[in-house]
Amino acid sequence: MPKPSLRPVQQPLPLAFVTDRPRALAAVRISHLTDVTTAPERQRNTVRMCAEQLGITVIAEAADLGVSALRMSPFERPSLSSWLRRPDEYDAIVWAHVDRAVRSVNDMRELVAWAKKHARTLVFGTPEDNCPLVVRPQANDAAIRRCMELAQVAEQEAHTLSARLTSSHAALRMIGRYGGGLVPFGYRKSPHPSGVGWCLTPDPDAVAIVREIVDDVRSGLSLIAVAGRLNDADVPVPRDRHALLQGRPMGGRRHGRDFDRFRWTSGTLSKVLRSPSLKGHRIHKGQTVRDASGTPVLIGPPLLTEEEFDSLQELLRARSNGSRPRSRTTALLTAVAYCSGCGGRMYFAARKGYSYGDYVCRATARAEKCLAPAAMRSDWLEAYTVARYRELTATGSPVSRQVLLDSGARVTVSKGHRGGNSTRLAGPDTSRLSFTLTEKSARSDS
């Protein structure tokens, strides 16, 4: 596909807002942050020049440093996403270039739709022409089309670069060098002894934690109990530890929720304890990387000996005997039903010998404490949700989980009371339930 022309559709005019000096949010993003990079400051300079040309005032900045646009849409980035949820605080968002905003046509389409919905203006610097691309809420087709063309170019460039990096990282893995990405827990990035590039060396603080975890598991503590102790001691999870070593803040966005820091869970612990990286092995997609002779490629000194690692795996396997493999969920209300007590998702739990089960709060599985954990019979909650959806959308067509997710359906369940009379068996207590849709055309009740 030929590269689209970067010639502006028309010269930018001062934006027409209610105030004389419209408020602008500067958006800065870079995929890889290093100590010597000047990219963020260069982006800020470009944003300032765009603002001066358009007669707007930059009042705040959303900086996502070390965040990939190919992996995270604007609505998932730690800093920008919080601003996108507060559109009333500014009139326009300014980026230094389209590829600083998105690396995907779909992300651009979603961003333009958001701007139209909230009557906000998007501004993209175009250094090649020294003329910003301005997309107003009532933008014409030419401006929208140009946005999509530039987003497509950015997406193609990102995929090309990703392919090159994948090849480069494969070569680095084979010679035991660190090529980037999440560092295995227990290690940290260090200069390579040769003076060229990077390698991984044990992280003393994390090594001590690994040893404590292994000792706790051997003493008979469950993974949930160990996770609880780590959370009580404010020990960073592997992702947060990596962020701290990179000089970035902990936390981020997960399952549509923002976290100041992430919490240990039994699943997180299981991944750490089962990873051959504890033996110093280079890991790619969960498997040990081996050289041409079949010998494991090492990332550094092992944290556990072969004997220690093997005995730990035997212990973990013995504990998991009899557990069933996880299967893809077919429950109607997964990611639709939420607990009022903690705001977390509710999950389906089967009842042995019954045709129905229950939707229950699973805060404990996330190593969190819910002060009012909710639960409700699955057939009751599903019937209520489907009925409310059909009532608010005036439709009689079949209602699937995907239909509910696409419409932004959400049912929130409050904790019930113990005891009661026979009326409890007649159906759900709807006073404990609230149902909402995010569609503009739908009403909501609570």
UniProtKB/TrEMBL annotation:
Keywords: DNA recombination, DNA-binding. Residues 184-322 form the Recombinase domain. InterPro entries: DNA_bind_recomb_sf, DNA_bind_recombinase_dom, Resolv_N, Resolvase-like_N_sf, SSR_resolvase, Zn_ribbon_recom_dom. It holds the Pfam family Recombinase. The keyword Protein biosynthesis does not apply. SUPFAM superfamilies: Resolvase-like. This is Recombinase family protein. It comes from Streptomyces cellulosae.
